[in-house]
Amino acid sequence: MAESGTRPDEPERFPRQGNMSSKQDLIQWENTSVETCTILSWLGYGQEIIQARRDAYRELGKLLTAWECCGAYTYFITGSKGEGLSSFFESDQDIMVVNNRVFCLEDDVKSSAFPGEITVLRSLSRRSYHGHCRLLLERRGTTIHRQVNDAFCDDGYGRELLSSDLYVNNWSNEDLTEGIVQHERAGPSIPHTAHGNLHRDKVHALHYYCPNILSKWAARPRHWPPPEAVQRVVSLGAVLTPVGFKGSEYQHVEWRVCFNAGEMELISNLNDTQTKLYVLLKMIKNDVLHPRKKEVSSYTLKNIVLWMAENNPQASFHKKSILQWLHEALDALRVALITLELPYYMIPERNLMATSGLDREQQRTWISTITDMLHEGPRVILRLPKIRQCIVAHPEPLRWYSGRRIELELLWLMRMNRQVICSDENGEVDGTDAIWQALKRRRNEVLTDVGMRMIMEGSRVTNADAMDVRILM
Question: β-strands 198-209, 93-105: how paired?
Answer without folding.
Answer: parallel
